[in-house]
Structure formats: C-alpha cells, structure tokens
Amino acid sequence: MADYQAQTSSADSRINEAIKFWRLVNEADSNNRAEALNDIKFAAGDQWPVEIQNSRNVEARPCLTINKIDAYIRQVTNQQRQQRPRLKVHAVNNLADYKIAQIIEGICRHIEVNSNADTAYDTAFDYAVRMGWGYWRINTRYVSEDSFDQEIYIDTIDNPFTVYFDPNSLLPDGSDAERCLITTVLDKKIFREMYPNANDGASFVQRSTGDDTASWITKEDIRLAEFFYIERERAKLYLLSDGTRHFADSNSFFERVEAAGLTVIDERESFRKSVKWIKMTAMEVLEEKTWAGKYIPVVPCYGAQVIVDDKRKKYGLVRFAKDPQRMYNFWRTSMTESIALAPKAKWLLAEGQDEGHENEWALANIKSSPVLRYKQKDIEGVPAPVPTRLQPEPPPIGIMEAANAISADLQMVLGILDPNQLPSGNISGKALAGQQNQVDLSNFHFYDNMTRSIRHTGKIILDLIPKIYDTQRVMRIIGTDGQPSMDTINEQKTTDGGVQVVLNDVTVGEYDVVMDTGPGFMSKRQQAVDAMMPLMAKPELFNVAGDLVFRNMDFPGADVIADRLAAMNPLAQIDEKSDVPPQVQMELAQAKKAVQDMQNQMSAMQLAMKQRADIEQVKQDSETKRELMRQTAKAHNTETMAEVKVNDQNTRSITSQNKTEIEAIVQLLLHRMDTSRLTAEIERRNADQAQYAQIAAQDIDMGQNPLLEPAPPQMPQAAPPMAQ
Questions:
Q1: Dihedrals φ, ψ of 502, to 5°?
Q2: What's the Cα-to-Cα distance from 102 to each of 86, 89, 109, 504, 541, rounded to whole Å?
Q3: Distance from C-alpha of 291 to C-alpha of 287, rounded to nearest angstrom
Q4: Which residues are CB-contacts of 341 (< 8 A; sequence separation ≥ 6)?
Q5: CA triple 198-200-201, angle to 5 deg
Q6: DSSP-based three-state secondary structure for 45
Q7: Mean of the per-residue pLDDT values for the chain?
Q8: Could you please report the per-residue DSSP string of 546-578?
Q9: Beta-sheet pairing, 221-240 with 473-478
C-alpha cells in the first residue's frame, strides 16, 4: 500500500510539473503566440481589420484582398526546396573510422528517406517563414508488429502551437532545451480503445493563445501530453587503462574491471544525464520510459529573433509586411470602387425627345441597343438638337500612383524585388548573378537557421544510432549519389586465428555532423553533365571518366551505358567500401592496367615474330621447290636433247629406200620422250598452294623449259608400218 501511494505521489508530482511548465511557457510566450497566430491568418488571406471590414460590409462596399505576401513566402520556401541542406558525417576520435563514417552517413540518408523527412523539414520551414518558428521531432518505432528491430524516424509536427518548448533555451538549434511538452487531442472513443482502464471523466480546463483546442478535457475530446524532461544524477566517473570511461553503476563495477585485467587511472565527480518521457492526461500518467538519447528529441526551426526588454521576440517574413499589404489592399479597393461606382455616361437631350421611347433611353447604359429613337422637337414643339453623351471623369490618378508606390514599399520590406523592375537588356551573367544573390541574401537567415536545426537533428541521430542499431542487421545504405546498397552492420566474424572481430561496427567511435549546402542532388547532376560534356571532346578523358557522364544523365538506359563503360575502365572499379584507400586502389588499378598493356604488347610482338618466321619458312620452302623444279627441268632438257641429236644422226644416215621405216622410228622416239615424268611434275606443281605455283612459274628459266620451247621441225609423217 505504501509503494502504491509512493508511485501515485510520484505520478502526481510529474503531472503537476508538466502542467506548471505548460503554464510557464504559456505566460512567457503569450505575446509571440498571439502575434504568430495573426501572422498565420494574415498570410492565409485574413488581411482586413475586423472593424473596417464590418463597416464596409454594412455599407455594401467592397473589401478586396490582393494577397501578394503568400507569393513572396512561396518564393522563399521553394528556394529552400531547391537547395536542401544535407548531412555529412566526420570521424572525431581515434576509435572512429572513415569507412564507418560513410556507413553512418548512409544510414542517416536512409532515415531521412524512410521517414519522409523532407515533409517535416518543409512544414517547419514554412511556419518559420510565416510566423517565426516551427518544429519537427525524432522518434523510434519497431519496424513491424512482429519484429524486435527498431528504426529512427523524423516526424512532422503540423501545428507548432501544440508544442510548448523550453523558454530558457538560448541556442538557435534548441540543443540546450531541458523540457518540452507536446499535446495531442483525441476523441474519447479512440482514447478508451487505446487506454481502456484510463480515467477520462475529470475536468481540467486551461486555454493557451493560438491553440484552439488547448483545454485538457472537453465533452467529446481529451488532450494527451507528451512531456520530455532531463534528470541529472550525481555520480563518479572513472577512466580505465584501456582509455574507456565508465560510471560505477553497481557495487560489482570494480570486480568486473579487475576481471577484465584493467585498472582505474583517474576519477572525478560528474553527473549522469538522462531524458525522461511520460505520456499523460491531466489526471494520470499513461506511459513512461527513459529516452535512449541525451537530447530532447524535438527540434525547433526559427525564423528571426531579437531580444526586447529581456524578452525574446520571434517573427517571420509576414510580421513587418502587414501594413504595406493592408495599404495595397485599401488603395486597390478604392481604385476599383471609384471605377465601379463612378456614374454612368449620361445622355443629354431636351425634355420630350424620349416621348414614346422612355424604356429604350432608360436602358441605354445597360443594354447594347442597335438604335435609339428620339423626337426632333421638345415638349413645347421647338426643334431640339441631337442628344449627346456626357463622358464621366477618369479614375483619380492619385489612387493609382499610391497603389504602385505601396507595391514598391512591400517589396522593399520583404527584400524581394519584382523581376519586371530589374534592369533589362544586354546584361552580363555576372550582373544577373549579383541581382539574384542580392535577393537570396535578403532572406538567407531563414535558410541558415534551418541548416543549424538539421545539423542538430544529425547530432540526435548520431547519438541514437549506437543504441538503436546495436545488433547485426542488413540495412539500406544510401550513397552520396542517391544510389542505395545493402550492407551488414555490426557483423561478427571469426578470423583464421580464431579471433572474434566486428565488421562495420557503428556502436564505437565518436562522430560529428557538418552540413553540405547548395543545389540539390538533381540540380547537381544536371550541372555535372553540363560541365563535363565539353570536356568529353577529348578521347583520353572520355576513356577515363566517360561512365561518370552517363551516370549523371536521366534518360532511360543511361545507367546501362555507364555500367558497360565502367566495366572496360579499370579506374572505375574502385571500391569505396574497401579498407584499401581509394588513392591506393587507383594506383593499383593503374599499375594493373600498365601490366596488362605490356602483356598485350608482348603478345602482339610474339604474334608478329611468328608471322615473320612463317613467312621465312614459306620463302625457304618456295626456294627449295623452285630449285627442285629447275634441276628437274634441266635434267629433262639434257636427256631429251641428247636423244634428239642421236635420233637426228641416225635419221640422216638412213637411205631413202628405208624412209618409211625411218619415219616410223622417229615417231617412236618422240613418244619415248619422258612425257610421263613431265606430266607428273606438272600435276605436283598444281597440287601446291596457288602462291607457290605462281612464284615457281615466274622464276623458271623460260628458255630452258622444254615445255615452252618451240617445237622441233616436224618430220614427214611415216606411213604406218606394214604388217609383217
């Protein structure tokens, strides 16, 4: 019973502390909240004072609103969307690593993409420009209902009036805040389903300026509050021999230190800082826990601030543009009213000239009648002149000049000039850039304050990553070029020597966040393509970086072309996730390419030498064959000529009585010439390759070839021998 009373007393004290803090913020920030609410309404189009609007409505007079402020607000906010700040992670101590820093940076991008952080940033920045401040928050949730893995999310706060931030926070990013209260209104039916045993019948009515549903309990709704507050507990900090720092969390701390073989080097008095969170109503605490990080997970985004009489005045772009906008609306309404309510152009005619046509003349200024009939005599029968039309007075020139002057005043107050009023004609690019830079610098403080807030968001995420992503898991890592990859973090492996190592360990080391500002990713890609295309005219540069050009293009198939070019480029095979530094990888790739080129050159030289050897062998074979053919031809020629001489001598000694028999012998000798050997040689030559046959045919001595010699003189053909 005593424990229950103690718990109830503790819960009541925390509820009372939260309500007390809520009242403190409401009192300290009431003027800012009231003026900010008017700014929001004014920017949304509620720009006429209530008294003037009511009086003009009673008199049926117009109240025109030409809302130029909203267009100027969109110009500032859309410029921020084109140049979104981006987180970059740097290692800051000896336990940190460059490769791990890149992985943590990729996890931060994954968190932003997974939680649609752009919506949270844009919403808060829009409120900062309109009224002076906005908020987003960091949260942790389980990946799914059946998972024990958690993810970090950046959530949108769509109504900044529901956030009651620490009024004692002085830093522009809110990192020094000690307390924060976020309220949510729920239907009682939904509340009972979420918390069936909770009390929803008590009455606690308080109202805050700018928060339309600030009462804690209504007939249909109930207000929940999330209260963050920091607790500090005094403790002693010990420095161990391995360089680590620990608090003495229990009596067994020193026993564990000795068991690990460590010693205490130094100690000092310090304190433990923890962030507590409770969800409550005005009656009871519904949930509570200790937040995993060391910062309040609510990030403010401020517009402009100034200290007046020890009070902080927060405002946006609208605050000082109200009066010029009201004057512009008034003068434009007066000009429209003077034209709309000016008397119609009247007709001047004598009395009686419209007799019988009164309706036609009564509608002359309303209807477009093709004819107007009149009488040429007045009512007394005296001839009257033709009716003439009297022209009305033109609109007052002063009203038009005043409206134009007020428009210029509005632009000067906002610091955004109308492009139509800028110098035109032949202007250099440097002059145009200077004009645009002048417009950007006028409201750059909004963008710079948002950059600080996003940097603080990165610090909160870096503080949460070792505690939320503390187990081995496969995560999506988004690179600087927007390309995702799947990597395993906190991967435990055993080396060949049996030593346990942890790869991609994101739980050790200290890291910090720096901001990268400038054009967004898509704009940078287009700029990269425009800058690289003229350089790609050099073939040697295209061979080195051609894949990067296509990687930044957006047409279908550009990535495929880039992959194919990268496959042929050894320098593109650099693995940024490797333990080997990129510069060393590049040098190795260049050395590998040089070795490959040398091997290719040696292969080409060996092939050329082989071709030369083959040609020399062909020439030698050809010379051998030619020599053989020459010797064969000479032998054939000598033998044939000797036989011919012998035959010729024998023939001359033959008498005429034996002429017939001699002719038969000569014919037989001719047939005895080695025709068969010559024919076989010719067939052997034809069987060789065509090029060898041509060379051999050209080199043979034409004069010694019996085949090409002129035939010897024909002897008289002998008569066939007579039968014996």
A1: -120, 120
A2: 14, 7, 11, 10, 28
A3: 12
A4: none
A5: 130
A6: coil
A7: 78
A8: HHHHHHT--STTHHHHHHHHHHT-GGGG--TTS
A9: unpaired
